[in-house]
Amino acid sequence: MKLMIRKTEKGLSAYAPKKDLEEPIVETEKEDLWGGWVKLKNGWVLLLPEMPADTRLPVTVEAKKMGD
Protein backbone atom coordinates (compact mmCIF):
# COMPACT_ATOMS: atom_id res chain seq x y z
CA MET A 1 0.00 0.00 0.00
CA LYS A 2 1.10 3.55 -0.63
CA LEU A 3 2.10 5.24 2.59
CA MET A 4 3.21 8.82 3.14
CA ILE A 5 5.49 9.31 6.13
CA ARG A 6 6.02 12.78 7.52
CA LYS A 7 7.38 14.43 10.62
CA THR A 8 4.94 16.37 12.81
CA GLU A 9 5.48 18.33 15.99
CA LYS A 10 4.37 15.20 17.92
CA GLY A 11 6.68 12.79 16.06
CA LEU A 12 6.37 10.65 12.94
CA SER A 13 3.02 10.15 11.24
CA ALA A 14 1.85 7.78 8.48
CA TYR A 15 -0.94 8.51 6.00
CA ALA A 16 -2.53 5.86 3.79
CA PRO A 17 -4.43 7.77 1.07
CA LYS A 18 -6.52 4.82 -0.21
CA LYS A 19 -7.74 4.19 3.35
CA ASP A 20 -7.95 7.92 4.18
CA LEU A 21 -6.17 7.04 7.42
CA GLU A 22 -3.55 9.05 9.28
CA GLU A 23 -2.01 7.59 12.43
CA PRO A 24 1.05 8.37 14.54
CA ILE A 25 3.95 5.93 14.39
CA VAL A 26 4.29 4.62 17.95
CA GLU A 27 7.08 2.04 17.56
CA THR A 28 9.86 1.28 15.08
CA GLU A 29 12.08 -1.75 14.59
CA LYS A 30 15.06 0.31 13.43
CA GLU A 31 16.19 3.70 14.65
CA ASP A 32 16.70 5.00 11.09
CA LEU A 33 13.20 3.70 10.11
CA TRP A 34 13.98 2.14 6.73
CA GLY A 35 14.05 -1.59 6.03
CA GLY A 36 12.18 -2.56 9.18
CA TRP A 37 8.67 -2.48 10.55
CA VAL A 38 6.74 0.37 12.11
CA LYS A 39 3.70 0.12 14.36
CA LEU A 40 0.89 2.64 14.06
CA LYS A 41 -1.31 3.80 16.92
CA ASN A 42 -4.25 1.79 15.49
CA GLY A 43 -2.20 -1.44 15.81
CA TRP A 44 -1.21 -1.89 12.16
CA VAL A 45 2.35 -3.15 11.62
CA LEU A 46 3.84 -2.12 8.28
CA LEU A 47 7.10 -3.20 6.66
CA LEU A 48 8.97 -0.29 5.09
CA PRO A 49 11.39 -0.58 2.15
CA GLU A 50 15.16 -0.17 2.40
CA MET A 51 16.11 3.45 1.82
CA PRO A 52 19.09 5.64 2.72
CA ALA A 53 19.12 6.78 6.35
CA ASP A 54 19.21 10.42 5.23
CA THR A 55 15.97 10.18 3.19
CA ARG A 56 14.10 13.47 3.55
CA LEU A 57 10.54 13.56 4.85
CA PRO A 58 7.78 13.75 3.78
CA VAL A 59 8.14 10.75 1.47
CA THR A 60 5.69 8.31 -0.13
CA VAL A 61 6.72 4.65 -0.11
CA GLU A 62 5.24 1.25 -0.89
CA ALA A 63 4.72 -0.48 2.48
CA LYS A 64 3.48 -3.99 3.21
CA LYS A 65 0.96 -4.66 5.96
CA MET A 66 2.05 -7.51 8.22
CA GLY A 67 -0.59 -9.83 9.66
CA ASP A 68 -4.29 -9.10 9.87
Structure description:
The structure is a single chain. This protein is globular. It has a single domain, classed as Beta Barrel (OB fold (Dihydrolipoamide Acetyltransferase, E2P)), CATH 2.40.50. The model has no long low-confidence stretch (mean pLDDT 95). Strands 6-1-2-3-4-5-7 form a seven-stranded antiparallel β-sheet, with no helix packed on it. It is mainly beta and 68 residues long. The protein contains no helices and seven strands. One of its GO terms (biological process) is nitrogen fixation. This is Putative nitrogen fixation protein NifT. InterPro entries: NifT, NifT/FixU_barrel-like_dom_sf. Pfam families: NifT.
Supply the key terms.
68 residues, mainly beta, OB fold (Dihydrolipoamide Acetyltransferase, E2P), 7-stranded antiparallel β-sheet, 7 strands, NifT/FixU_barrel-like_dom_sf, NifT, Putative nitrogen fixation protein NifT
How do the helices and strands line up, and which of them pair or pack?
Elements: E1 2-8, E2 11-16, E3 21-28, E4 37-40, E5 45-47, E6 59-62, E7 64-66
Antiparallel strand pairs: 1-2, 1-6, 2-3, 3-4, 4-5, 5-7
Approximate strand percentage? over 45%
The CATH topology corresponds to: OB fold (Dihydrolipoamide Acetyltransferase, E2P)
Largest sheet: 7 strands, antiparallel
The number of domains: 1
State the CATH class. Answer: Mainly Beta
Distance between the termini: 14 Å
- The total count of helices amounts to 0
Helicity level: under 10%
Q: Give the number of DSSP strands.
A: 7
Give the H and E element order. EEEEEEE
- The secondary-structure class comes to mainly beta
Low-confidence stretches: none
CATH superfamily: NifT/FixU-like
- CATH architecture label: Beta Barrel
In which order are the strands of the major sheet placed? 6-1-2-3-4-5-7
Average pLDDT taken over every residue: 95
Q: What form results from the Cα inertia axes?
A: globular
Alpha-carbon Rg, integer:
11 Å
